[in-house]
Specification:
The complex is a heterodimer of chains A (126) and B (140). Chain A has 126 residues and is mainly beta. In chain A, 6% of the residues lie in helices and 47% in strands. In chain A, the strands form three sheets. In chain A, strands 5, 6, 8, 9 and 10 form a five-stranded antiparallel beta sheet that branches. A four-stranded antiparallel beta sheet of chain A has the order 4-3-11-7, with no helix packed on it. Chain A is elongated and about 50 Å long. Chain A starts with 7 loop residues before the first strand and ends with a strand. Chain B has one domain. Chain B is built from five helices and three strands. In chain B, strands 2-1-3 form a three-stranded antiparallel beta sheet. Chain B starts with a helix and ends in a 23-residue tail after the last strand. Classes of the chains: A mainly beta (126), B alpha+beta (140). The interface between A and B is large, with 36 and 41 residues.
Chain lengths: 126, 140
């Protein structure tokens, strides 16, 4: 593997520091599929495994840890024509340097399994 | 030594993902009323484990558990280990992603961890929150 050592990137008009690129790229993401039958992982980056915790709750486990739990995680889903929101839950242990526990909450309040859901993590690697 | 994240990203670009034929079913003894959890190995991670030369020794993850947030961790720059079999990779993953209270410290009589073929995980999730680890022998 070769290394390109530059401090700025330009397209001829706009110039940005490489730190914007390094800090702005996602450090981990995972696409969960078949969450309403036998859960599997469709695609991912920097994920070692996924834990099926309970109905509507899944935990992403990261191969290369974040520096701490002060990172940002988000989620999206595509399911059943309803709107769901993504929660990282509450309480100690829901979000650690090496894992992110999620809950998928239906707009009526309950948690539900989803056929197609994703987690993405931005922040500093350890 | 390149960072583990870079090695994983590079491996993803050249290795075909490997869907494991196993799942790990476990109960957390600190939450006796919680249902059994199911660990699903990541296909890109499994490809890296089977290829070798990418993942750090499991010992580095175990030592890093005690490192406070924000402090340097050992596993990202540790010397990679060689290729594993799928079974060895599952054992590695158990130590990495399941709490030690389940696989190391538990002294009770219940069987709280099983490695099972995917086909033994129910596809009907109607009673997902009542799942427990079967205490009788299961056919493979």
């Amino acid at each position: 593997m070769s290394t390109l050592n530059v401090s700025n990137i330009t397209d001829g008009t706009t110039t940005v520091g490489t730190s914007y690129v390094v800090n702005g790229s996602a450090k981990a993401w995972v696409n969960m599929v078949n969450g309403r039958s036998t859960l599997a992982i469709g695609n991912s980056l920097n994920c070692s495994s996924l834990t099926d915790v309970t109905t509507g709750s899944f935990q992403g486990n990261w191969a290369s840890s974040m520096s701490g739990s002060d990172y940002v995680s988000g989620g999206t889903c595509n399911n059943q024509g309803y709107s769901y929101s993504y929660n990282t839950g509450a309480g100690a242990g829901s979000k650690t340097a090496s894992s992110t526990k999620t809950y998928w909450v239906h707009h009526t309040g309950g948690v539900y399994d989803l056929d197609d859901a994703d987690i993405i993590v931005h922040g500093d690697l350890a | 030594m390149t960072h583990l994240w870079e090695r994983l990203a590079e491996a993803k670009s050249r290795l075909a993902p490997v869907q494991s034929k196993y799942r790990v079913l476990f109960e957390d003894p600190s939450q006796p009323d919680a249902p059994a959890a199911v660990l699903v190995p990541d296909p890109n991670w499994m490809a890296a484990a089977l290829a070798g030369g990418i993942l750090p020794p499991i010992d580095t993850y175990l030592r890093d558990r005690d490192v406070p947030d924000g402090q340097p961790k050992e596993h990202p720059y540790a010397e990679p280990i060689g290729a594993m079999t799928e079974e060895e990779a599952i054992e590695y993953l158990i130590q990495k992603d399941i709490p030690p209270a389940v696989w190391r410290d538990y002294q009770g009589n219940r069987c709280i961890l099983r490695i099972v073929p995917v086909k033994l995980i129910p596809s009907d999730r109607s009673f997902r929150n009542a799942w427990r680890v079967n205490q009788t022998e299961m056919a493979a």
